[in-house]
Automatic annotation (TrEMBL):
<keyword id="KW-0472">Membrane</keyword>
<dbReference type="InterPro" id="IPR006054">
    <property type="entry name" value="DnaQ"/>
</dbReference>
<keyword id="KW-0812">Transmembrane</keyword>
<dbReference type="InterPro" id="IPR013520">
    <property type="entry name" value="Ribonucl_H"/>
</dbReference>
<keyword id="KW-1133">Transmembrane helix</keyword>
<dbReference type="Pfam" id="PF00929">
    <property type="entry name" value="RNase_T"/>
</dbReference>
<protein>
    <recommendedName>
        <fullName>Exonuclease domain-containing protein</fullName>
    </recommendedName>
</protein>
<feature type="domain" description="Exonuclease">
    <location>
        <begin position="75"/>
        <end position="241"/>
    </location>
</feature>
<dbReference type="InterPro" id="IPR012337">
    <property type="entry name" value="RNaseH-like_sf"/>
</dbReference>
<feature type="transmembrane region" description="Helical">
    <location>
        <begin position="12"/>
        <end position="39"/>
    </location>
</feature>
<dbReference type="InterPro" id="IPR036397">
    <property type="entry name" value="RNaseH_sf"/>
</dbReference>
Length: 404
């Protein structure tokens, strides 16, 4: 039986209390009440102090380690898909790649090409390297998907923007009347955002470059699944090693925007110069009055010099802007804003600019103005398209997936 500390003190207090009560009952009652109140006050103060101090450093470390152990599994499947587009309602899966992880090591692989029953768009072939000829003769999704689900079993899954892949699995399963599993999942995109909130971009290619895993994302399902597994394990190590370190949050420096004076000066310039477009206004929704817009440079990637030269330096013209995909470069295949002049492709916005103006472009496209400029030194032409004031930057890929 455990001994209670201070028992002899309590015994002496009881004897003294009885003596006081016999000698002077009134005084004894007053002292008893005062002692009771004092004891309650001390007890409450002690309890608050203990609560504010929290658990010991050792117990906190053990708790944090246990939580991370439970949160990030050692056994799972990392997966990725390649598809004909971004909409699970209208597009199809053309490749599934996955690796089985046991005790944080790859033990098995799954890889399959799938005939979607339709032709691939050129941007998908450019992005993935998969061609219609490669898919000709490959099994249909109704054959591959049951085999993949059997191989997957009840494992939790890891993916980058995993909801995109799960959304396609659900849609394809519904089409072939197959019950899709609903596994526990972990998203490296979400983990990266929570651990590195100061970073603007969290694509798979950003993670593999930031973590020193690779320089290039191949956009093939199996290789992307392996890189996702590597990113997941890197993030696990980072989280566990930083569990007790308070993160210093870096606030983004606010982006400069035009003030009212600049907008008025721009409107005055438009009114006082010959900014009348030299071509016919195409049909479509007019995005905004050019006087309320701001000029945004079209990406320099691509050779549109012959087209721009036809209009000439200083020319204003009507253009159509649409939601599309980056045709080349490191951002190939990612959503962007395309520009069309009199039916001819005139370029696209960089990922940074597109993330600031994408929501201003209707899904069916819109009409605005642009003007041609010429560099005095190189003589090269450039186009500047007029768009409404920039909105807050968005993650274009996540936005497109959420809208699908």
């Amino acid at each position: 039986m455990k001994k209670r500390k201070g028992g002899w003190l309590k015994a002496i207090a009881v004897v003294v209390g009885i003596g006081l009560f016999i000698a002077s009952p009134g005084l004894a009652i007053v002292l008893a009440i005062a002692c009771f109140i004092l004891v309650r006050i001390v007890a409450r103060f002690t309890k608050r102090k203990a609560k504010s101090n929290g658990p010991s450093r050792k117990s906190a470390k053990t708790s944090a380690a246990e939580q991370h152990k439970l949160y990030l599994p050692d056994d799972y499947v990392a997966l990725d898909t390649e598809t004909t587009g971004l909409s699970s309602a209208t597009d199809r899966i053309i490749e599934i790649g996955a690796v089985r992880i046991r005790n944080r090591q790859i033990t098995d692989r799954f890889s399959a090409l799938i005939n979607p029953g339709l032709s691939l768009g050129p941007h998908i072939t450019d992005l993935t390297g998969i061609t219609d000829e490669m898919l000709d003769g490959q099994p249909a999704i109704s054959t591959v998907l049951p085999d993949f689900y059997d191989w997957l079993g009840n494992d939790p899954v890891v993916g980058h923007n995993i909801k995109f892949d799960l959304g396609f699995f659900a849609a394809e399963s519904e089409r072939i009347k197959l019950n899709a599993p609903k596994p526990v999942y972990y998203d490296t995109l979400h983990l990266s955002r929570t651990q590195f909130p100061e970073e603007r971009h969290h694509r798979l290619v950003d993670l593999i470059q930031r973590f020193g895993i690779a320089e290039v994302e191949e956009h093939r399902a199996l290789s992307d699944a392996i890189q996702t597994y590597q990113c997941f394990e890197w993030l696990r190590t980072y989280i566990e090693s930083n569990a007790l370190r308070p993160k210093k949050s870096r606030k983004r420096r606010p982006r400069k925007s035009e003030d009212s004076y600049q907008r008025r000066a721009r409107a005055d310039y438009i009114n006082s110069h010959d900014c009348e477009p030299r071509n016919y206004q195409p049909e479509g929704r007019l995005i905004a009055d050019v006087r309320d817009c701001g000029g945004v440079d079209v990406s320099r990637r691509g050779d549109y010099q012959e087209l721009f030269a036809r209009y000439g330096k200083g020319t204003w013209l009507w253009v159509v802007v649409t939601r599309g995909y980056t045709p080349n470069g490191k951002d190939a295949g990612l959503p962007t804003i395309e520009v069309w002049a009199d039916g001819e492709y005139a370029g696209f916005l960089t990922q940074l600019q597109a993330s600031r103006y994408f929501l201003h472009v209707p899904e069916e496209g819109g009409v605005t103005q642009a003007h041609i400029r010429q560099d005095n030194k190189s003589g090269r032409y450039r186009m500047r398209v007029e768009l409404p004031p920039a909105h807050e930057e968005i993650d274009l890929l996540s936005y497109m997936v959420e809208q699908s």
